[in-house]
Write a structure and sequence with these properties.
The model is unreliable at 44-57 (pLDDT under 50). The protein has 13 helices and ten strands. Helix 2 runs antiparallel to helix 11 and helix 9 (169-185) packs antiparallel against helix 10 (213-228). It has helices at residues 10-20, 32-46, 49-55, 69-81, 92-101, 116-128, 130-135, 148-156, 169-185, 213-228, 246-261, 273-281, 294-299, and strands at residues 61-65, 85-89, 106-110, 138-143, 161-164, 191-197, 202-208, 233-240, 265-269, 289-291. The protein has two domains: 10-46 and 190-303, Transcription Regulator spoIIAA; 59-185, Rossmann fold, CATH 3.40.50. The two termini are 23 Å apart.
């Protein structure tokens, strides 16, 4: 397959606009394709509505326990944007009450609530609870302390991980949760991300089995994680994708949209004929940047 940049002729553009329901009578500018893709994404999402309502019950829930409003704001915003259900407890009593009310996949516990003894007590209480074992809840302790004895005590009392509050601490938490998500579902090899160029914020994602909706959902989460971590130039390596569903196509459109919104680029490579034909049905084979291989996709960033 030859490399393709966004290159729609007049007839193709009109068909894409009609399919997306975009008014073809208005003046068309450089954002026309992007607007059409956004509308097309909405239309494709309609076929997933019933399923999405069911899947809401399976969205991982995270309990944030912290007494600093800035920390709560940063972390809750990042996790919510990345597709998680977020609940908040701002003191010792609220933390106990919130933990009893719901089932959580992850608990993010600030050690100093306001003293370390409070955090350690909560950690020990949660770890001993039967629901923690039943739900396989992972408890991640967060703190700015570098006291090795205190950190060691956290692990003794049941912490699954300790993350120091460095300038990138909230992004480190998100990365760790994503890693745990892959391990939890046993599908961590379906999506493999590799940082290609840290300075230019380029990352490639190798995807397997995109015909399975749960993989498309995981890809969407991974895209959000990368974008929220500052990586806005993304290559999707599709050499192991033989078929694609409407959910998978919707995820690709969403990836294109979010990269564009963050002034980045979204490219596909190693697209098989069967997948390219599926994309052509909705005129995406010419709307998205497609490259023959990853090397070609990477070299296309040289002009950035």
């Amino acid at each position: 397959m030859e490399d393709k940049n966004i290159n729609l002729n007049k007839e193709q553009l009109e068909k894409l606009l009609q399919l997306a329901g975009v008014d073809t009578s208005v003046n068309q500018d450089t954002s026309t394709v992007t607007r059409a893709l956004i509308e097309l994404e909405k239309k494709l999402s309609l076929s997933q509505c019933a399923k999405s309502e069911v899947d809401l019950t399976h969205i991982p829930s995270v309990l944030i326990i912290d007494d600093l409003e800035l920390s709560i704001y940063q972390l809750s915003l990042l996790l919510t944007k990345s597709g998680y259900n977020v609940y908040i407890a701002r003191n010792f009593e609220e933390a106990q009450d919130q933990y009893k009310k719901r089932h959580y996949q992850y608990v993010l516990l600030d050690l100093f609530m306001p003293e370390p003894e409070h955090g350690l007590t909560l950690l020990e209480t949660f770890n001993a609870a039967e629901k923690t074992k039943q739900d396989s809840t992972k408890i991640i302790v967060i703190s700015g302390t570098d006291d090795k004895k205190l950190i060691s005590e956290c692990f003794i009392k049941g912490a699954n991980e300790f993350i120091e509050k460095t300038p990138e601490w909230h992004k480190n938490i998100l990365r760790h949760i994503r890693l745990l998500e892959g391990q939890r579902h046993g599908n961590n090899m379906e999506i493999v991300s590799n940082i290609e160029d840290k300075e230019r914020k380029i990352v490639s994602i190798e995807v397997n089995n995109l015909h399975r909706d749960y993989v498309a959902q995981e890809l969407e989460k991974e895209l959000l994680t990368l974008i929220n971590s500052g990586y806005n130039n993304i290559i999707i390596d599709m050499k192991n994708v033989f078929n694609i569903t409407s959910k998978g196509i919707n995820t690709l459109i969403s990836g294109f949209k979010v990269c564009t919104e963050y002034n980045g680029s979204f490219k596909l490579c190693n697209v098989r004929t069967s997948v390219n034909e599926a994309l052509s049905y909705v005129f995406l084979d010419n709307a998205l940047q497609i490259h023959k291989n990853k090397e070609s996709a990477l070299s296309s960033f040289d002009d950035i």
